Q: What sequence folds into this?
């Protein structure tokens, strides 16, 4: 689904990302882990064509992301608050994203209503602008919006951070449901090793811009990762 | 009291640091220099008018004491001052939440905030008029004590305005109330129903006649200070007034009539919400409509020429293009807070820009239609307005969108539009050339060499050609925007 070849990003002689060949199969759920500055967000930004690679290309379903916009129709993402429109209410925001993704109001409402327990009665019908919601609630809105319009690739940067425990658990279920049919490719980055191993069937460890580990998830993965990061 | 002074000094030190260490401080030296020149210009203007007001008034109304005449019109100044303050003066707010939890008395902080507001430029600039004016009065032999106390009263009344403004700012109701009262007074005065100016003038004049009347302004000052102080004390909480705006419940808006614009409709709807719900774009748009009245100055005053002069071309382009200049200059920076979303969503750059272009075109159509009553001042002026609209639509919109490709400075939607230079760059200054200077030059030259009709025709043709070529130009602009996208993504993230 996603193929990156010789991708690198260099800022002022400082290499922040350098990945030779990396491929993600359709329907895989990938967990990206690594300490701060490992290059997780840089990789996502490259994948979303928000920054230009110094070398190499990334293909999303065969489309070179920096040359053609058409990958946007099946790819959705939530990276940070710069993906939210502060002066809209959550409902308006969902409808707006829905309109862009060819979904009418009823479609959007049907999807969003599935997440009423996730929202915990704090988001829908509160007549508040997104900018006036708490950080955690903003995040929930961003994550759910990334699920609108049946995307084939979903990219979530640090989705577990800032969420309360109940919501974290619910979010794990949501991601698992998303990938159970092996139709949706999910990329998640996280600092929470246990959550990320729970939801991913493949874990990629980045360090200083390079892939240092690439594991199929199994019972021992979490201990492996904890060992790795405690050194 | 001594403790309070020490605290004041400490807070002041903090603010000093926050000013000089802010990220924006070293940026935009050119703009700072320009602002400095503007300030010098204003000062000069005030000193000049202060020095010559007396003799001008004495010549204009020779039968009345010039000071009395000035007093009659000073009320207009005070009201205008209030109006400008309403839009431009920042309310005294605390820069740092940290001050709320460290052991400084609430009252001390509030006194500090209120006293600090007294040394705002709005209170100082009038002195550049008042002091020279007073000097002239003394030279002309007015009683020294009376004149000095009159000056004192005026200075205190300016401070009163300062505090009244904070109260007005709490609710729009006060503002519209004042606007209403002023409008009624102006109408009543204008149609000679009742002479408002004379009795009000005598009130101000009595501050000269009876020096001890200074107690009235002093009383007012104390009253409004206390009202403000009490208000701040009550609302000195994180979720309330002083530090942040109150959250209001909001109503969802639909605008389904905009769906006729097809694939760009979601953006048009969004832009309308953007304008409606955010302070800076909202004020920008209100100003654009207010500028429609600019024509009243330009088209009625013979110093700008008769029926279709170069200055009238300026006014016509300006009036019909105010929205494109004001709002358009910050495309796409208005969307800077969520630019990453738009760039990764299922939309093309072309759709995105097309929505902006349609918005600008709509504004030109609306402003041109609204300016049609100016036909009253002659068909030449009416023609110029129509041609100005055409020129804006055909030439200025693409020219502006081209300059917008250089925008990469973030715009904060919540801040005031007045005297706000955030988001300004070279592009904003360069804009003036194609937008105003070129049409004036072309019109002036052809009008001088050939005739008015031909000059108007040429501008009209330029606009038409621009509209005919718009799709071609537009596709070029789209690829330019695509190239600049990465720089915008980075720039818009920087606060």
A:
């Amino acid at each position: 689904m996603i193929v990156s070849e010789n991708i690198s990003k260099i800022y002022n002689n400082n290499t922040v990302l350098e990945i030779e060949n990396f491929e993600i199969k359709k329907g895989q759920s990938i967990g990206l882990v690594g300490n701060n500055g490992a290059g997780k967000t840089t990789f996502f930004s490259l994948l979303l064509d928000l920054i230009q690679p110094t070398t190499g290309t990334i293909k999303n379903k065969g489309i070179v992301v920096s040359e053609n916009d058409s990958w946007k129709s099946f790819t959705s993402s939530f990276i940070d608050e710069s993906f939210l429109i502060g002066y809209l209410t959550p409902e308006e925001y969902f409808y707006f994203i829905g309109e862009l993704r060819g979904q009418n109001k009823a479609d959007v409402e049907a999807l969003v209503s599935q997440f009423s327990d996730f929202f915990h009665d704090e988001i829908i019908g509160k007549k508040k602008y997104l900018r006036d919601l708490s950080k955690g609630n903003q995040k929930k809105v961003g994550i759910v919006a990334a699920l609108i319009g049946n995307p084939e690739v979903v990219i979530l940067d640090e989705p577990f951070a800032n969420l309360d425990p109940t919501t974290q658990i619910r979010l794990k279920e949501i991601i698992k449901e998303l990938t159970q049919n092996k139709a949706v490719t999910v990329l998640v980055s996280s600092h929470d090793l246990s959550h990320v191993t729970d939801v991913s069937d493949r874990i990629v460890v980045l360090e200083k811009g390079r892939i240092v580990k690439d594991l199929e998830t199994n019972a021992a993965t979490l201990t492996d990762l904890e060992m790795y990061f405690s050194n | 009291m001594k403790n309070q002074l020490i605290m004041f000094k400490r807070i002041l030190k903090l603010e000093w640091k926050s000013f000089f260490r802010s990220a924006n401080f070293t940026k935009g030296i050119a703009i700072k220099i320009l602002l400095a020149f503007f300030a010098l210009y204003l000062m000069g203007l005030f000193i000049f008018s202060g020095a010559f007001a007396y003799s001008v008034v004495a010549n204009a109304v020779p039968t009345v004491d010039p000071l009395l005449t000035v007093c009659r019109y000073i009320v207009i100044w005070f009201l205008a001052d209030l109006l400008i303050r309403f839009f431009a003066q920042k309310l005294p707010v605390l820069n740092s939440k940290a001050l709320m939890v460290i052991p400084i008395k609430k009252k001390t902080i509030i006194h500090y905030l209120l006293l600090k507001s007294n040394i705002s430029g709005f209170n100082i600039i009038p002195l550049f008029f008042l002091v020279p004016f007073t000097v002239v009065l003394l030279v002309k032999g007015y009683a020294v004590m009376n004149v000095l106390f009159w000056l004192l009263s005026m200075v205190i009344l300016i401070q009163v305005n300062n505090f009244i403004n904070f109260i007005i700012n709490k609710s729009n109701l006060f503002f519209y109330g004042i606007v209403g009262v002023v409008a009624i007074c102006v109408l009543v005065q204008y149609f000679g129903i009742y002479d408002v100016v004379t009795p009000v003038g005598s009130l101000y004049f009595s501050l000269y006649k009876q020096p001890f009347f200074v107690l009235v302004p002093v009383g007012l000052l104390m009253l409004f200070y206390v009202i403000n102080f009490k208000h701040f004390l009550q609302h000195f909480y994180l979720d309330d007034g002083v530090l942040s705006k109150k959250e209001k419940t909001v109503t969802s808006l639909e605008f389904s009539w905009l769906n006729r614009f097809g694939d760009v409709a979601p953006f048009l709807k969004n832009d309308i919400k953007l304008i409606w719900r955010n302070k800076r774009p909202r004020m920008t748009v209100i100003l654009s409509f207010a500028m429609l009245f600019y024509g009243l100055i330009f088209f009625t005053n013979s110093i700008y020429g008769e029926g279709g002069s170069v200055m009238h071309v300026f006014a016509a382009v300006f009036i019909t293009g105010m929205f494109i200049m004001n709002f358009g200059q910050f495309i796409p920076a208005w969307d800077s807070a969520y630019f990453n979303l738009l760039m990764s969503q299922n939309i093309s750059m072309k759709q995105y820009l097309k929505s902006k272009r349609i918005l600008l075109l709509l504004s030109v159509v609306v402003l041109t239609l609204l300016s049609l009553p100016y036909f009253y001042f002659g068909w030449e002026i009416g023609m110029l307005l129509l041609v100005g609209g055409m020129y804006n639509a055909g030439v200025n919109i693409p020219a502006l969108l081209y300059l917008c490709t250089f925008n990469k400075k973030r715009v904060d939607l919540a801040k005031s539009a007045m005297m706000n230079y955030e988001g300004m760059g070279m592009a904003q200054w360069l804009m003036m050339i194609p937008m105003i200077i070129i049409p004036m030059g072309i019109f002036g030259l052809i009008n001088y060499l050939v005739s008015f009709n031909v000059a108007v025709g040429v501008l009209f043709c330029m606009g038409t050609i621009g509209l005919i070529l718009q799709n071609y130009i537009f596709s070029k602009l789209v690829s330019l925007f695509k190239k600049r996208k990465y720089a915008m993504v980075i720039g818009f993230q920087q606060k």
